[in-house]
From TrEMBL:
ABC transporter domain residues: 7-228
Record-linked PANTHER family: ABC TRANSPORTER, ATP-BINDING PROTEIN
Keywords: ATP-binding, Nucleotide-binding, Transport
This protein's name: ABC transporter ATP-binding protein
InterPro entries reported for this sequence: AAA+_ATPase, ABC_transporter-like_ATP-bd, P-loop_NTPase
Species whose genome carries this gene: Catellatospora chokoriensis
Length: 242
């Protein structure tokens, strides 16, 4: 994995009978954490489903350009389904098998994934006994077990308490080194704590693409929010919806 590895969108579109259309989007996402921000219905989950190959584009393309020769993609949907009766280690062994990790490497891959998200001490715990925050971290481990170049995390902190959100953000930051990580979120503290880059979507179009410091410059005094970052996001999302 190198800084030249990237996820590339070329005039990507997805249209629905409801009238909603994502795109056209043309952009490249490089290593580090990119936060995808926008109101409900802006197209965040649609983008993730296209990137993960769950849905096909109506036109254009999206794919990974990997100069290192490695690739692979890990996807944590907004509401992952985890088998409550399995242990964490059993579950990750099964996922490693599904991802075609060689038999000799599966135990090590499962252990490494658990270590990366801070769940090594819960390897033998039944998933049904885990807290909400631990289940989310296990979901990230499930997306990581085959060591993908691209990691897609759809609203990973939703429904967590403040302490759980901090632990999850720390786990995401730890696994983002030399990896392309895209995180969709509604939460300003996620953007502040994670983002190397921010992409704001509004009604299927890009309303902003840049770093946090440049984003804050869009804040206005009359916009809702307690910080420049909150106000700037409010301004751009409102403008995109007009």
């Amino acid at each position: 994995m190198t800084e030249h590895d990237r996820l590339v969108c070329e005039r990507l579109t997805k249209s629905y009978r409801s009238g909603f259309r994502l795109g056209p989007l043309t952009m490249e996402v490089a290593t580090g954490v990119t936060c995808l921000v926008g109101p409900n219905g802006a197209g965040k989950s649609t983008f993730f489903r296209l990137a993960a190959g769950v849905d096909r584009p109506s036109s254009g393309s999206i794919g990974v350009v990997a100069e290192t020769g490695g690739a692979g993609l890990g996807y944590l949907p907004q509401e992952p389904k985890l088998p409550n009766s399995a242990t964490c280690e059993e579950f990750l062994h099964h996922v490693a098998w599904l991802q075609r990790v060689p038999r000799r490497d599966r135990a090590g891959a499962a252990s490494h994934a658990l270590d990366q998200v801070g769940l090594s001490d819960r390897r033998n715990a039944r998933i049904g006994t885990l807290s909400g925050g631990m289940r989310r971290r296990l979901g990230i481990a499930h997306a990581l077990v085959h060591d993908p170049l691209v990691l897609l995390l759809d609203e990973p902190t939703v429904g967590l308490d403040p302490r759980q959100r901090i632990a999850l953000r720390e786990a995401v930051a730890a696994v983002s080194r030399n990896r392309i990580v895209i995180v969709s979120t509604h939460l300003v503290e996620d953007v502040r704590g994670l983002a190397d880059r921010v992409v704001i979507l509004g009604e299927g179009q890009v309303a902003y693409d840049g770093d946090v410091a440049s984003l804050e410059a869009h804040a206005t005094d009359d916009a809702p929010g307690d910080t420049d970052l909150e106000r700037a996001i409010a301004v751009l999302m409102t403008g995109a919806s007009e």
